[in-house]
Amino acid sequence: MTAKARVAILISGRGSNMEALVRASQAADYPAQIVGVISNRPDAKGLDFARTQGLPTAVFQLKSYPDKVATDAAIVSQLEAWRAEWVCLAGFMRVLSADFTRRWWGRLINIHPSLLPKYKGLDTHLRALEAGETEHGCTVHHVVPEIDEGPVIAQARVPVLPGDTPDTLANRVLIEEHKLYPEALAMVIRESQSPR
Ligand code: GRF
Q1: Which amino acid residue places its CA nearest to atom 2 of ligand 1?
Q2: By the 8 A CB rule, do 55 and 34 touch?
Q3: Segments forming the whole domain that contains residue 24
Q4: Number of domains present in the structure of the chain
Q5: Residue pLDDT, tens place only, 115-138
Q6: Which residues line ligand 1 (CB under 6 A)?
Q7: Which among 47, 175, 177, 185 is the best mutation to test ligand 1's pocket, defined by most ligand atoms within 8 Å of the CB?
Q8: If pLDDT is split at 50, 70 and 90, which confidence band does 2 have?
C-alpha cells in the first residue's frame, strides 16, 4: 500500500477547512495524513482544534522576522522538519513570497470562496450578490505568486437564492468547501502517485 502523503495546513483564523481536512485524513483509506498546522496569528481559533487532535502546531508572525522572505524561510524550515510533502492553504490570509510558491509549486494548494476566475480577493459573497449572480461556489486551485490565480483543480457550485445575504450565501458555500477541499486534495495526491 502507498504510504499516506504528508500534508501541512496553513491557517489564519477559524480553521473550519483545516478541520474538514483533518477529519477526512482520519479515514483509513484517505491518501493523506496531516503532519502539522501553521498559523500566522497566535490567536487563530483553528489552532485549538489542531491541538485537541494532538497535531503539531507552529506560529510564524511577520513581526518576529526582518521581512517576509525571512518569515517564509522559517515556515519552509518547519515544513521540512515535519517532512511535509504537500501544503494546503486554508484561510491563510498572508500572501506568500514568490520564492515560497516556486519552492512548493505543484504541491501547494488553496481554497477560495468563489468560482474562479470570478471574484478573486476579498468579499466574494457580497460581490457575487451585487453582481446579480444566480450561481456561486468555491474553487480549489494550485497556488502561484499572483493572488487567486493558478490552475483550477476542482470547483463546487451552489445556487444564489432570493433573499440571500453575504452570510447566508457564505454558509451555503462553506458546506461545499468542507466537502470539496478533502476531495480535491485526495485527487491531486492520487494523481501524483499513479504511474505515468
Ligand atoms: C474560507 O471561506 C476559504 O475559502 C477562504 O477563507 C475562508 C476560511 O475559513 N480562503 P476557515 O478558516 O477555513 O473556516
Answers
A1: 113
A2: yes
A3: 5-193
A4: 1
A5: 999 999 999 999 999 999 999 999
A6: 11, 13-17, 46, 90-91, 111-113, 138, 174, 177
A7: 177
A8: confident
